Amino acid sequence: MILEVKNLSVNYGAIRALHDVSLEINPGEIVSIIGSNGAGKSTLLRTISGLLKPENGYIKLEDEDITGVSPHRIAKMGISHVPEGRGIFYNLTVIENLQLAISGRSEKSNLKEDIDKVFKLFPRLAERKKQMAGTLSGGEQQMLAMGRGLIMKGKVMLLDEPSMGLAPNLVDMIFETITRLNQDGATILLVEQNAHKAVNVANRVYALKTGSIAFSGSPDHEDIDDILHSAYLA
Question: Is residue 83 a part of any domain in this protein?
Answer without folding.
Answer: no
